[in-house]
Design brief:
The structure holds two protein chains of two kinds. By secondary structure, chain A is an alpha/beta fold. Helix content of chain A is 39%, strand content 19%. In chain B, 54% of the residues lie in helices and 20% in strands. Chain B is rod-shaped. The chains are: A alpha/beta, B alpha+beta.
């Protein structure tokens, strides 16, 4: 999900063994973006998993309103970002991440500091915040992306069941051309897969079907979308909505499908780590992101919707991933091993 | 009582002569308030402690259920562990107050999953029931539950320790919210207690004020014992007061008896003097001596009259406080009175004219006193009338009042005299200051006062005096 730059596999493997004490990985910076005097004594240091192209509108809007606050925006993978705070104790003022479970673990383990009350914070829906430690910034669906020529116009699948049927009907056409995250290497992929699995048996049936079709597994959404655009893939399952919509807006060959049976909604969340050197500036940024100007700057990016303008509650097929310590179960070592064993069994079939 | 402008119930005046200690009312109010404050604080603490315990018990039972669910999720296949940890197990611990959650699974002394730094209880639990304890993790205080379960691992029954911990922000928040409410309740209770204690102190001290008022409002001759209903606590005070009144009445009645006795003893020799002087008048030839004897006779008459009035007065004094009241028909009473007075009037060549309604006029009173009072009024009229005058007696009923008017054509009362006498009569004060004929009118006033009636003297149109004595009808 971290944009076009590949996350080193080493960091992901370390992330799998999250609970084990081990040598900390150095922070793998994928992108860096500086606004104002970056060498100033105390810039607002943001560690984020959202790439610069999606963050730039709100960063610039904030800087326009607060020219006295220089910003240093660092992009890293979800697991790198977690490690930077939890293990390396690097000093950042704000951590924005799409890995809800890792954010929850940071807060649960005492790495987040309370965010002071404000009118903006009060207005955030209860489902989009956890205590005064984690605040949702934006919400986006987890979608299926298909090439527009993958299905006949009247056969475009709108549920997982229909997708299974389409894949079964023409296995030769789809063999090797279905892609999804590798839950073993992608934190987001594991989160989506495990949440999917919690909603019923359809997920495992789908896993068996795409396993039989020699599905291609990816670490990151960027590569997956590239392969779709190139025609190497016909269908990609469980992609992050913001990137998919952004690419589909430019590329008419891509079709974004929000499944009608249920569509997971992912929260991009922010927290102020204990190590923050400039927490006041971080709180200003947070309040700005929740203000009208911030909401507009977030919504300007296709597929990215502010939590403040997202439809509230569980409307229709939307299933917002619950932001609470239940997410910790996701990170349980034994549970994850179990899940990956099942997953591997589905993928590698005799 | 020396200042007529002040009512009898005027407290400062009454208290002025009394040595004052600490105010009972203030003392009572302070004690009530202190008790209320104590009760409010106790209420607050009791609610707070109870709420805290209740919240802890509720959360403990959730924690216990979650710990059981966690332990039941662990299965082993040979030497591979399989943990079915539904997210809801952790979610439900957080549901109440968004608490942080930690868990740990220990098998053969090795942490197989969870937080290695979550402490197990000092005594490792052996049964399947969760044991609760408090510990801290990374400096955060947590409430934890732990239990041991046996699973078949690698072909052998193996003990596995489960620990599940949560912060208690939710419990603290609930306890704080309840404590805040309890605080408001306590303050509200206290605020309510302020006027209540004022009212209660007033209610408790009320009977004292009532007795004091009742005693103060009495006429000077009212020496009845205090009969008001009082709380038993005041009974000794009332008993002492009544004892004092009894002694006072005894002394008073002794004085009255003495006066009556003295008057009686004076009257007998006076009669003798008069009789002897009249005999001497008959026998004396010298005009000079006859004149002197006539003066002696008149003086003896005056003296005898005064003695009679003294006796009447003593009678009024001794009867005014006794319950000898009954229905009295004024018409018949006046008929009798006029009949007995007529000889005296005839002697002075006065005509008595008497008018009364046909129906009986009944009032409630002491017949003897009323008769004495009316006789004094009539006696006065006869005394001050000139020979050949007429005296008019009227009995009338107006509204709820019976009034007796005695009209004469005597020398009347000067306006100035009337003004100076009237207030003294109406207040019925200073008996000792009034001597001679004034005693009679004082006595009349006292009778009318003790019967809730009115008595006044007015100048009559065309000369003379109108004495107006009125009583409420029975």
């Amino acid at each position: 999900m971290a944009g076009p730059i590949t996350v080193p596999v080493r960091a992901l493997i370390l992330g799998v063994a999250l609970m084990l004490a081990g040598p900390a990985a150095p922070l793998d910076v994928e992108e860096e973006f500086v606004l104002g005097r970056g060498d100033a004594a105390s810039p607002l240091r943001i560690l984020s998993t959202t790439d610069v192209s999606a963050a730039r509108p709100f960063l610039e809007a904030f800087h326009g309103a607060n020219p006295d606050v220089p910003i240093r925006y660092t992009v890293a993978s979800t697991i790198s970002a977690y490690d930077a705070i939890a293990r390396e104790k690097l000093s950042f003022d704000l951590v924005i991440s799409s890995a809800m479970d890792l954010q929850m673990k940071l807060a649960n383990d005492g790495h987040a500091r309370p965010i002071p009350d404000s009118a903006e914070l009060d207005a955030v829906p209860r489902t989009a915040r956890w205590r005064d430690l984690i605040v949702g910034i934006s919400v986006e669906p987890v979608v299926i992306v298909a090439r527009s020529d993958a299905f006949a116009a009247d056969e475009v699948p709108h549920t997982r069941r229909e997708l299974i049927d389409r894949l079964r009907e023409d296995p030769e056409r789809f063999r090797g051309r279905v892609g999804t995250y590798d839950p073993a290497t992608s934190g987001a992929g594991y989160l989506f897969a495990s949440q999917d699995a919690a909603f019923g048996s359809t997920f495992w049936r789908l896993a068996e079907v795409i396993g039989r079709l020699d599905a291609r597994l990816y670490c990151c959404s960027g590569e997956m979308i590239n392969d779709l655009a190139d025609g190497k893939l016909l269908v990609a399952y469980n992609l992050v909505g913001s990137y998919s919509r952004a690419r589909a807006a430019e590329d008419p060959r891509l079709l974004v499908i929000e499944p009608d049976d249920f569509t997971l909604q992912l929260l991009r969340t922010a927290l102020v780590p204990q190590s923050a050197a400039n927490p006041d500036a971080a709180v200003r940024m947070l309040n700005f992101l929740l203000s009208d100007a911030g909401i507009a700057a977030i919504n300007v990016v296709p597929g990215q919707i502010s939590v403040m303008s997202a439809p509230s509650g569980r409307l229709g097929a939307s299933r917002t991933i619950r932001l609470d310590p239940g997410l910790l179960a996701n990170l349980d070592r034994i549970r994850k091993d179990d899940f990956l064993r099942e997953w591997t069994a589905a993928m590698v079939q005799p | 009582m020396t200042d007529p402008a002040r009512g009898p119930g005027s407290l400062p005046r009454r208290l002025a002569a009394v040595g004052l200690g600490g105010s009972l009312q203030r003392k009572l109010i302070w004690q009530f308030l202190a008790a209320a404050a104590l009760a409010a604080v106790t209420l607050f603490l009791a609610i707070r402690v109870t709420a805290d315990r209740a919240a802890e018990a509720a959360q403990d039972s959730v924690l216990a259920a979650a710990t059981l669910a966690l332990s039941e999720g662990l299965l082993a296949e040979d030497d591979e562990l399989d943990l079915d940890l539904p997210p809801t197990v952790l979610s439900m611990l957080s549901a109440m107050g968004e608490d942080q959650v930690f868990y740990r699974v220990v098998l053969q002394g090795r942490t197989v999953t969870g937080y290695e730094n979550l402490a197990l209880p000092a005594a490792i639990p052996t049964g399947g029931e969760p044991v609760f304890y408090k510990t801290s993790l990374n400096g955060t205080p947590v409430r934890a539950a732990s239990l041991t379960r046996t699973i078949l691992f690698d072909g052998a029954q193996t003990d596995v320790q489960f620990a599940l911990a949560q912060t208690r922000h939710g419990q603290a928040a609930i306890a704080d919210a309840i404590a805040r409410r309890a605080g408001f309740l306590g303050i509200g209770f206290f605020v309510l207690a302020v006027p209540m204690s004022l009212l209660a102190a007033r209610a408790i001290l009320g009977p004292i004020g009532q007795v004091a008022d009742g005693v103060s409002r009495r006429g000077p001759q009212d020496l009845r014992p205090v009969a008001e209903r009082v709380p038993p606590e005041l009974a000794p005070f009332i008993a002492a007061l009544n004892g004092f009144i009894r002694r006072l009445r005894l002394a008073h009645s002794r004085t009255e008896t003495f006066i009556a006795e003295a008057a009686h003893h004076i009257r007998t020799p006076l009669s003798a003097i008069r009789a002897e002087a009249e005999v001497a008048l008959h026998e004396a030839g010298d005009d000079n001596i006859r004149t002197r004897l006539r003066r002696v006779i008149r003086s003896a008459e005056e003296c005898s009259r005064s003695a009679s009035q003294l006796m009447d007065h003593a009678l009024v004094m001794s009867r005014s406080d006794r319950e000898v009241r009954g229905p009295v028909e004024l018409g018949a009473l006046l008929d009798g009175l006029i009949a007995s007075m007529r000889p005296t009037a005839d002697l002075r060549e006065l005509s008595l004219r008497w008018r009364r309604p046909d129906e009986p006029v009944v009032v409630l009173g002491d017949r003897l006193l009323l008769e004495t009072a009316l006789r004094n009024i009539l006696d006065n009229a006869i005394k001050y009338s000139n020979p050949d005058d007429a005296i008019d007696l009227l009995l009338e009923v107006s509204g709820r009042e019976a009034s007796v008017k005695v009209l004469d054509r005597g020398r009347g009362i000067a306006k100035a005299d009337l003004a100076s006498l009237a207030p003294r009569f109406q207040r019925g004060e200073n008996v000792r200051d009034i001597v001679g004929s004034g005693l009679g009118l004082t006595m009349v006033t006292e009778v009318s006062d003790s019967h809730d009636g009115r008595f006044r003297l007015e100048p009559r149109e065309g000369g003379g005096t109108c004495a107006h004595f009125s009583l409420p009808l029975a």
